[in-house]
Every structure is written in structure tokens, then in C-alpha cells.
Design a protein that fits this description.
2 copies of one chain form a homodimer.
Chain A: H1 2-13, E1 23-24, E2 27-28, E3 33-34, E4 40-45, E5 52-55, E6 61-66, E7 69-74, E8 76-77, E9 79-80, E10 85-89, E11 97-105, E12 108-110, E13 118-121, E14 124-131, H2 138-141, E15 151-159, E16 164-172, E17 184-188, H3 197-200, H4 204-213, E18 221-224, H5 264-274, E19 284-289, H6 291-302, E20 309-313, H7 328-334, H8 336-347, E21 352-358, H9 364-376, E22 382-386, H10 392-403
Parallel strand pairs in A: 17-18, 17-19, 19-20, 20-21, 21-22
Antiparallel strand pairs in A: 1-2, 3-4, 4-10, 5-8, 5-11, 6-7, 9-10, 11-12, 11-14, 13-14, 15-16, 16-18
């Protein structure tokens, strides 16, 4: 075996695929390194560089130049050591969390070549790492632990409403293959996202696997659809070619035949036909973030009596044009169709209408106004407020919380 | 909708996730651009850089410094334009193929920030793009076309032989959900790979979707296992944490309870229990590349009568210690167990024992010697030789060829 290893390794060295970045002067570079005191060290070999920074939302802020002018962003300067390797250690121990970062070398963003763990958000890639202090903290919840794992399927389904075959991600709980029926959570992404967003950025499988293993969530099927009605699937996964994804809609100019909410019956019909689901509203939940929060709002009122559990995460409630500016209360009250739909929805007494948002979210005011509308109409809801804003850190927390409240 | 777009876009600009790299001076940078004449232009904004190269195996060679000394590698210099954007256009039109490349800026490897399409090979990331000239060429075969798509599931199965739950990727053909039983192809990766290798680098779903749509391959289930017996799953997907993958075994020091070939019965038992498979050797095929070619060789002789179709792609035949140097013929002849196993295998008259390799593959001589052994023993096989060496370009071709030969 050793001989083969040597021969194959030699051959590999000679190929393009060999990663010389992670090796420097024959040494393996370890980055990030989580130190015993809980601080984290980042390292990059860049002997010719003048300025190397590491940027991440957990690091002290710095000012950078962007096409939109000077902006404040995260960034800490690395120090150059004699061997041409730059390094930076955080000032404090980091709290449990999934962190993202990247390097910036003389103005050019660079992923950490020593860290193969990366995620994409629209067109942006970042490295990730997880800090866990103890069993059950949020870092632990986002970690792949030694617990039973659910399967994650990329499924093509027919959407007669949109006139296309479309892709979605379906998680089945670890016990699914033993038989039985399971409740279903529909989990929706935000603008710029797709059916890969919750599995990757949202750590859906890890959160649900862990909560099930801890007895904190019921075993459930989780359906993660693509909320861009003009796209069949994530970028590169459908016949539109290798286009550059954009924030809204992915494909400029393409016009869908229907909205995501109008077409959502196709998703539910498919899931109920092909998976062993427990039917009825007490076994059906829906939640989503940002644009997916809007979709959750729109779908839940379009299909009253379908869902007992409805979760709006940092929801963009106000999607259409309005004559009422930012006054959602006035807008909704003036909109006879929407008013009637919401009335019909709340007449079904959903067990949980859950609104979650961060204090600094740019949609905070919008959500406050929407809550006033609900209050005025005596529509019951639960409210969950966190720090910070419109970020995945919050959405992972919201999923973790919401998943523990449903099907009980 | 426009208003929401504006508000959300503004918010997004202020967040860390905004990718300023793909925008430069307010302009979208297009890279790679496939020009009307078939040449390809690569662009990178790097106003402060001194030397920007693009490296890829389709580009003229250059010399680089590595930890192992100076090596010849691919690389073409980009020219700096007045606006700080560097560019390079290939001298000739590129032939149909899936190409990979990355940039090198003043000695530091950098992925193309304008191209979100990337693959990982062990610890190396590259950007990819596809050139297609006409329907049916290999570029077309690797493209997601407007044809019915199979589902791709990440499945956890129990391996009593290894004493662990393990992850594999299972492709079901587009018609699978309509019912019926299907033949099964077991498709194995090489050293350093995992159950994500064939789906990503090998374009398995695209190749099989397209071949089925063209009527060139039978609808089949494709099972892509993890050939590292000491790992439960791909890096980051199991409880070993976010470790750095390595070429052999991923996890130094860990010792598996059994070999991949010994444990393969667990895979087949699972698949035959949980999927609607057509059983019997005429409906069962196995193939693999490099280390997976060895596994194919080892599994097929360990389970004689199980497979009618056996494909060795650039196979590392000689895995164990040998007293016979590189003389596989002598080694195999002297090994009573192996000789008996191969005799038993060929006594079942498999319909196809297919050996494929590239002319410059470092395992070429080893495969030649193995073919001599088969000739000497009058064990029938088919031989398929291509140009070039131990690369994914060849393995995609071999899968495309092999898939058209099986279950017929």
C-alpha cells in the first residue's frame, strides 16, 4: 500500500490538481486554528504581499473602498512573519457560532487555501468554521455530530402552474426508511438564494438531525424549494447554462407564468404524492427568510387551513407597489383581497404564527408595522426578537427555535 | 416589486456578503467569456498586481516553483489594460470539453471571482466552464440540457462490516418515480475522492441524463459510494469535523475494521432493499477510476457472478505489497487466492470486462502487464485507449463510453 501511495502521490504532484497553496516551504499551513484558549488564528502564505487582511463579521471593523464609495466593513490586518506566512489571532475567545471569513491580499479578496470549507451566497464565497464550547450550544447544533443523519435528496418535480420541471431539496429524517408517516416543514430561502441555500448556509440537516437526536424536535420531512419562479433550479443545475446569479430572479428578462405562491400547490401535491407524509394542518408547517418570509406570508394566506405553523423570519412583508408608502397597516387594510385572505387564514386558528426579526434588520420597522396590523385585527402571533440584522446567523437561530415549536 | 428590490439591494450592499470582486468601477466583469470565434477570454480586476497568470491544462505550459522544486505547469500571462483589468484570450478556439482553470496573482492562486462555478479535488479548487460546438459532443454531454433529470440523493446506510453508518450518493433515473425496476451501476471514485467526486468532477448526472435522453444508455440507478473505509462520508459531512482532506484515507491514523471490497456487500444489500432494482448479474455493473479501478477489480473478483459489466478506468491494479516488483503478471500468478478468485470470476462469463487508460497515464505499464496476465489466462476483456493521462477528462469519457455498453 505504501508503494502505491508513493507512486500515486508523485503522479499527483505533477498534475494541475495539486494544491501548492496549502503547503509552503514544505510545511502544512494550519488555518484557521482554534487555540486552546478559544481564540482563533488565521494564516496565509504570501511572501510578496504588502497588506493582508482577514475579513469577517466577528472581527473589528475597517473602512474599504467599494464601487458604491467608502464603506465600513470587517477586516483585521495580519502580521508578516519571517517565513513569509502572515498571521492574525483574534483578541478574544470566540463565542459558539458558525463564522465566515476570507482574506484580502493587497486589495484582492482571497479564500483561505488551507480551509476547504466554503459556502456561496449569490456570487460571494466565504470560508467557514464552527466554534463549539459545550453540548447543545449553537455551534454544536450546526456541527455534524455522531448522531443519526437524514437523507438529503435533490428532486425534480413537475410544476404545471409554472409550466416547467423544477428542482427542490428534500430532507427525510433518519428514521424515514424504517417506515411510518412524518409531518412536513416547507422551508423557504431569501432573494438571491435557491434550493441550495438552507442546506449550505442554513445548516438545515445539521440543525434538524441534532434537534431530533436531542429529542427537541419531532422527526420531520423538510422541503426546501426554489423561490425564484423564473428559474428551474440553482445556478448551473438547470438548462440556463453557467450564468452569473444575481440578487433578484437570477435571470434578467425571464418572466415566470405565475408567482411562487400560486405555484406552491404543485410542490405540496408532489410531496404528498411521493413521500409518506402525515397530512392535515397540524402536520404541516411553513417558514422562510426575507423574500421567503414574504412567500411564507403569501402562501399561508393563499392556502388557509393548510398550515398550523407559520414562521416569518426577517420577512419582507411589503412586496407589491403601495399607495401607502411604508405604512403596511394602511396598505393591508386598504387591500380588500389581502384583508379577506388574512381574515380567512386566522379564522382557521393556526397554532403558531411566528414573527422573528433582529433589532438592526432593515426590515424591522416594516415588521413592527405589520405586527400593529395583526394587533389591530386581533390576529394572534408570537414574536421573537434577536440582536443584529439581516444575516444567516439569525436565520439559523430562527430555524432552531421554530423547529422546536412545531408538530407538538 | 421594484421598490423592494431597491431596498433589499441597498441593504445587501452594506453587508459582508456583497461580492465587490465581480464588480469593478461599477462594471460587471465577464469571465470567462466564450467568444463567437470559439476562443475564450479570461479577465481579472487587479490594479495593483505585477503579474497575473491564468493556469489550466488547456493553456501553454510555464515553469513554476513548488515545494518539490521547479515544475512545469500550465500558465498564460494576462495583459493589464488601462482600467486595471487584466485579460487573456486563448490563441485558438477551444475544442468541446469541460475545462478548469484558476488565476495566479503575484504568486498567489486565486479563483476567478466572476465565475461562481467551481469544483474541489481533494484540497484544490478550480473554476470550470464548458465548451460545446454541437449536439452530442462531449461538452454537450457534460451540460445540463433541457432533458428530464434524475434525482440525486445523499443517503446514509448501515455498514455492519465496517461498524459505521456511511454516506453515499444515489442517482435515480428521470422515470424512476413513475415506477418499474432499474438496473444498477456502482460507480467508484479514486484516491482523495469521496461520494461527491463523480457527481461534481465526473458530471455523472449530466452524462447519464443526456445519454438516457438520447436513447444511448438505458435508464439506470447509479450508486456512488465512499471508497475510504476509514471515513463515513466526504470531508465536513460526518462527525470527524472540518478536517483537511488528504490524498490517501483522509484521516491519518484511523484504521478501518475491513476493506472497501469486504464491506461492499453492505452497500449492495442496502441498495437492493431500498431501491426498486432489477437483480441478477445482467442488471448489475461496476466501474471505478484509479483507486476505484482497484476497488472494481477487487470487488468483482470477491463477488463472482454479481456483475456482468466491469469497468476498470485507469485502474491501480497493484495495491498490495509484492515480491515481484512491477510484474503484475508474476504477482497475480503467484498469488493463489487472487488467481482462484479471478478464475471464478471469469468462469461466470461476465459480458464485459472493460479496461480503459490514457497513453501517458503513470499506470499505463501496470495496466499493460495486467492485460498480459488476462491474455495468458484467456480471460476475455475489451480495451479502450485514449490520449493523455490520469485526469478527469479521461474518466468522464470512460463513463460516457461504458454507460452506453451496459444493460444491453
Amino acid at each position: 500500500m505504501k508503494k502505491l501511495l508513493f507512486v500515486l502521490a508523485l503522479a499527483l504532484c505533477a498534475t494541475f490538481s495539486f494544491a501548492q497553496q496549502a503547503l509552503f516551504s514544505g510545511q502544512q499551513i494550519k488555518s484557521p486554528e482554534i487555540n486552546p484558549d478559544g481564540t482563533v488564528t488565521f494564516r496565509l502564505a504570501a511572501p510578496k504581499a504588502v497588506l493582508v487582511k482577514v475579513t469577517g463579521d466577528f472581527l473589528p471593523k475597517a473602512k474599504i473602498q467599494t464601487p458604491f464609495g467608502e464603506m465600513e466593513t470587517e477586516g483585521s490586518a495580519l502580521m508578516k512573519e519571517e517565513n513569509g506566512v502572515w498571521s492574525y489571532t483574534t483578541e478574544k475567545a470566540l463565542e459558539p457560532e458558525l463564522y465566515s471569513y476570507k482574506f484580502n491580499v493587497d486589495g484582492i479578496d482571497l479564500l483561505d487555501p488551507a480551509n476547504v470549507y466554503r459556502t456561496r451566497d449569490i456570487v460571494s464565497f466565504v470560508n467557514i468554521f464552527i466554534i463549539t464550547k459545550e453540548k447543545g450550544d449553537c455551534g454544536d447544533l450546526y456541527t455534524v455530530n455522531n448522531v443519526p443523519h437524514g437523507n438529503v435528496n435533490r428532486v425534480w418535480y413537475d410544476s404545471p402552474t409554472l409550466g416547467t420541471k423544477r428542482r427542490m431539496t428534500i430532507y427525510t429524517p433518519p428514521t424515514y426508511e424504517n417506515g411510518g408517516n412524518y409531518p412536513v416543514l416547507y422551508l423557504l430561502h431569501g432573494a438571491g438564494g435557491d434550493e441550495e441555500a438552507w442546506p449550505a448556509l442554513g445548516r438545515q440537516a445539521q440543525i434538524i438531525d441534532n434537534l431530533i437526536a436531542q429529542g427537541k424536535a419531532k422527526p420531520m420531512i423538510v422541503v426546501m424549494t426554489n423561490g425564484n419562479a423564473n428559474c428551474d433550479a440553482a445556478p448551473g443545475e438547470w438548462h440556463a447554462g453557467m450564468y452569473t446569479p444575481s440578487f433578484m430572479g437570477h435571470q434578467e428578462g425571464a418572466q415566470a407564468k405565475a408567482t411562487t405562491e400560486e405555484a406552491y400547490k404543485d410542490v405540496m401535491n408532489y410531496v404528498e404524492k411521493h413521500y409518506r407524509v402525515m397530512k392535515g394542518k397540524k402536520n404541516t408547517a411553513i417558514c422562510g427568510l426575507s423574500m421567503g418570509g414574504y412567500h411564507t406570508y403569501a402562501i399561508s394566506k393563499l392556502y388557509p387551513g393548510k398550515f398550523d405553523y407559520i414562521g416569518l423570519f426577517s420577512a419582507a412583508i411589503q412586496m407589491g407597489q403601495s399607495n401607502h408608502g411604508n405604512d403596511i397597516n394602511a396598505q393591508l387594510s386598504a387591500d380588500a383581497t389581502t384583508s379577506a385572505q388574512l381574515k380567512a387564514l386566522f379564522a382557521t386558528n393556526p397554532k403558531l404564527y411566528w414573527i422573528a426579526i433582529g433589532k438592526t434588520d432593515f426590515l424591522y420597522e416594516q415588521n413592527t408595522t405589520y405586527r400593529k396590523f395583526l394587533d389591530n385585527n386581533k390576529y394572534p402571533y408570537e414574536y421573537f426578537e434577536t440582536g443584529e440584522g439581516h444575516i444567516w446567523k439569525n436565520w439559523r437561530i430562527y430555524l432552531s427555535e421554530f423547529a422546536q415549536k412545531i408538530f407538538k
